[in-house]
Inverse folding.
């Protein structure tokens, strides 16, 4: 790549984390248990039996972390709010929970860093799960009450709100594939969960408008590009189905007010009638948002299984420590598709990054692969912008190494290395490189 690629004036450069992955303080100041506390303590669910009990101790070390963000030139910080801190039990609001986020947001403002709050990043209060979780339509009302509480307490100091992080993971990964909390394996339940999460999104957008706040609200979807392994019609259809599950199942309701017909036919056959979809639900889900958050990590390649359903094909090219193919051109393809087929709204890359087996050598962490990964993905984003794409910001996942869900602490996504034994933070070479990218508002 020759020459410098400069981003538009005002382009927002930041990093992202999530409450259960970084905060620790799992029982502090009235926090109640979440489904991830339960899941992580269930033998065999998380590698090495790791939990988020301590994590990066961000709950106590946020002043140091925010100072480091400032030193690294970060302009924005996307964090999530832990619902079980705010409503630890049914019907009981915990002001101490909100107070932590007020302290965090105030510290961010003091350092000139824009707070971006994700309302839900997977840590459902266990008391709601005990009532059926997201599969129970009542969860929608609980979510709106929680969101309204946040808008009341933080609405005037948080300018960007994200209702949900990755509804696909909340529904299919957690209730069909069983890999995330609560670890269920039931397609019909996953479809109900997806619907109620989307409905809670729409209801919350409505509540935000009614609150008369001056910020902006959107949703973050994990999206990908699905390629067929061959031009064989069976493989092409398998790719279409995989795209329907990964992308269109969420994009269509939000931007078109309907579920994709081809997938409704398949899922009705596999999981029964959609009697959990009420008459005006889709009109609520499609409430206009101000921006779309896109989490992109990799593309997928699929072939048709014997049943015609998509089966993953192992990556042929370079992969990260997660085994995910490094495929920056698919970020450009994804963004271009979103603009062509769904929306001209502002887009933010709310997560993009890579795990690599980082090591501390003489007090330093050299991570050239991560620098190359980020550079190539920034270049793909820049190409989209150059062609008129409305991309307004980029949040690298993650600010620091953290609890990587079922992988525990075995995968390091951070720009900043965390020594979990001492809680020492060490900016990796990629953090210093990113600092220079932000300062130049571009890449060389
Ligand atoms: N795996 N992985 C890394 C990263 C995960 O740590 C985030 O919590 C999710 O939002 C999204 O899956 C992406």
């Amino acid at each position: 790549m020759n020459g410098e690629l400069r981003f538009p004036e005002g382009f927002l450069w930041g990093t992202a984390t999530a409450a259960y992955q970084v905060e620790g303080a799992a029982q502090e100041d009235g926090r109640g248990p979440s489904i991830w506390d339960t899941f992580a303590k269930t033998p065999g669910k998380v590698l090495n039996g790791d939990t988020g009990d301590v994590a990066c101790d961000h709950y106590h070390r946020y002043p140091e972390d925010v100072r480091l963000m400032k030193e690294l030139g970060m302009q924005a910080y996307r964090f999530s709010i832990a619902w079980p801190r705010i409503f630890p039990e049914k019907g009981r609001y915990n002001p101490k929970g909100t107070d932590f986020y007020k302290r965090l947001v105030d510290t961010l403002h003091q350092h000139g860093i824009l707070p971006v709050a994700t309302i839900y990043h997977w840590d459902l209060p266990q008391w709601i799960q005990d009532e059926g979780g997201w599969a129970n339509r009542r969860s929608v009302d609980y979510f709106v009450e929680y969101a309204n509480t946040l808008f009341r307490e933080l609405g005037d100091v948080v300018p960007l709100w994200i209702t949900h992080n990755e509804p696909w993971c909340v529904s299919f990964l957690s209730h069909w594939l069983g890999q995330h909390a609560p670890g269920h394996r039931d397609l019909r339940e996953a479809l109900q969960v997806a619907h109620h999460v989307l409905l809670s999104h729409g209801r919350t957008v409505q509540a935000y408008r009614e609150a008369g706040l001056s910020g902006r609200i959107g949703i973050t979807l994990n999206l990908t590009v699905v390629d067929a392994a061959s031009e064989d019609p069976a493989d092409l259809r398998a790719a279409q189905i995989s795209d329907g599950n990964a992308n269109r199942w969420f994009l269509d309701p939000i931007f078109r007010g309907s579920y994709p017909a081809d997938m409704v036919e398949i899922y009705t056959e596999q999981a029964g009638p959609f009697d959990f979809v009420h008459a005006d639900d889709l009109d609520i889900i499609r409430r206009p948002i101000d921006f779309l958050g896109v989490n992109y990590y990799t593309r997928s390649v699929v072939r048709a299984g014997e049943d015609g359903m998509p089966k993953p094909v192992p990556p042929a090219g370079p992969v990260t420590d997660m085994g995910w193919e490094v495929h920056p051109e698919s970020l450009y393809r994804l963004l271009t598709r979103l603009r062509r087929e769904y929306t001209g709204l502002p887009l933010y890359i709310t997560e993009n990054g890579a795990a690599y087996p980082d090591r501390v050598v003489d007090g330093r962490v050299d991570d050239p692969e991560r620098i190359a990964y980020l550079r190539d993905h920034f270049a793909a984003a820049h190409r989209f912008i150059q062609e008129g794409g409305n991309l307004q910001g980029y949040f690298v996942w993650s600010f620091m190494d953290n609890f990587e869900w079922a992988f525990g602490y075995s995968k390091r996504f951070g720009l900043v290395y965390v020594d979990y034994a001492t809680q020492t933070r060490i900016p990796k070479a990629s953090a210093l490189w990113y600092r220079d990218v932000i300062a130049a508002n571009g890449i060389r």
In short: DSSP finds 15 helices and 15 strands in the chain. The longest strand covers residues 114-120. The pocket of 8P2 is lined by residues 18, 21, 165-166, 295, 351, 397, 404, 413 (CB under 6 Å).
